[in-house]
Amino acid sequence: MSGDFKMLAKTFYGFEDLLEKELVSIGAKNVIKGNRIVSFEGDKGFLYKANLSLRTALKILKPIYKCKINNENKLYNVFYEFPWEKYMNISSKFMIESVVQGTIFNHSQYASQKAKDGLVDRFRKKYNKRPNVDTILPDIKINLYIQNNLCSISLDSSGESLHKRGYRTSTNIAPINEVLAAGLINLSGWEARNDFLDPMCGSGTFLIEAAMLACKIPANINRKSFAFEKWNDFDTNLYKLIVDSQLNKVIDPKIAIKGSDKAPSAIKKTKENIKNAKLDKFIKVDQADFFQIKKENKKDLHLLTNPPYGNRLKGDIKYLYKSIGDNFKVGFPNTNAWLITSNLEASKFIGLRPSKKIKVFNGKLESRLLHFQIYEGSKKAHKFK
Length: 385
Prior knowledge:
By secondary structure, this protein is α/β, with parallel strands linked by helices. The chain folds into 2 domains: 5-156, VC0802-like, CATH 3.30.2130; 178-221 and 243-383, Vaccinia Virus protein VP39 (Rossmann fold). The protein contains 11 helices and 14 strands.
């Protein structure tokens, strides 16, 4: 008898194709894309593997119940009648996170409260005791989704968002999300076959995600814990087997991954994070102003960076972007240059026509991932080589 069950992987807007491809590559079954979510099937070991390995997933949910409700009392009854003792104990600390859409419930917190009441009343009746709510470090995190009259209940197997990889203890003013960074690297088409550079590396997230991809290191190997480790059915030996299996795939990519930043504080933070990720061997960083550096050799180079958008920058943002374009043209021949920006007006001053513009969101900021193919000599000359 198969032990497979349905799971849901949540992701960012525009990353659904990337996540689908990742899931297929690690052996997921019945993979189906949705809006910022991809459903799939697998067994308990695969749930562990998905949390450990997926680079573009934010959460892995395990659906456990679905029904229709038409009022708040029905929601209470659903949680009161559900056999929660299969998943948690009296001593289990829990929280319920709700998302509601439609007219039955207007406030997610109210839905969470009614669901909580049903759950604790069940335990109180059966055991004359009740489990406690803990919104900071719960043992069991329950995901409640209500759309009109359809109610879906899932267990959150991840706990904290999977972008919290565990290596980043030092950040700059506006650090890029780790899952976003991994997705942007993927969208840029880098397959770890040529050198990688981030010349405005901030706290080093692009560099670390690139190195983990190139070395085939599981994305979340540095996390301290996952929510599934506190489930009643957690299998320590199976989890260790999954971890060892993934670590056996780690390689030395034999390419250069380099970063630089003009701020000494940024370089210090980057080095701390690289050390936390145990990637000192694979990443080199230097303090340097992007506008004073050139490409080091004639080999093809993949450049990806997140320049200031202007929100926190003092000075002329248009001049900054013009200078970026000038240095691309003069100092970086044979380079696939990519940058993410939400300042679309300022990006026009780069002075190069992007060959790709990919819509993404950096937090709440609608942004574009722009690609500039920099040739040695003129583009026209390159076409006739």
